Fold this protein.
Amino acid sequence: MRVITGTARGRRLKELEGMDTRPTTDRVKEGLFSALQFEIEGRRVLDLFAGTGQLGIEALSRGAASCVFLDHRPDAVKLIRENLKITDLTDRGRVISGDAMEYLQSLREKFDLILLDPPYAAGLLEPALSHVARYDLLAPGGILVAEAPAEKTLPSLAPPYGVSRVYRYGKIGLTVYRRGADGEKGERAE
């Protein structure tokens, strides 16, 4: 697992042992960041269910202003901090240990980009999507990217949120939601 491009390009990230964490493949990560390449610089990012932190680190490497990494596993939190040190991105990353749903309910800030990649079998993706929309956690014009099995159709969200695009990479699907500007509805699927 490596950082694809940006200031930390080519740096190898440490991985968690065992099968509890399923890192996003390089192919999917490359597709995701190619789709968002002009929408990352200067953005405030939330990497929920961060695991190794690779998605948020990739965003920081590509010029995101800051990233909050959240995971409930102590070993993942420790590893994210180590990976931020490896990539010299510690100054723009904030690592939080805790429950994702509780964190989303307590948030008082908005993000420009939210990355959701929970363990597939945990049943956390739909509740996380619902919380983001209910508590309106994306800034106007913000983007939310959710990773799920390719055969799974993710729910639409109430305006101003809308599905912008769905990408498929073999067995993995990425659904991109966008939040419209205040007073606008979100984009519809193409």
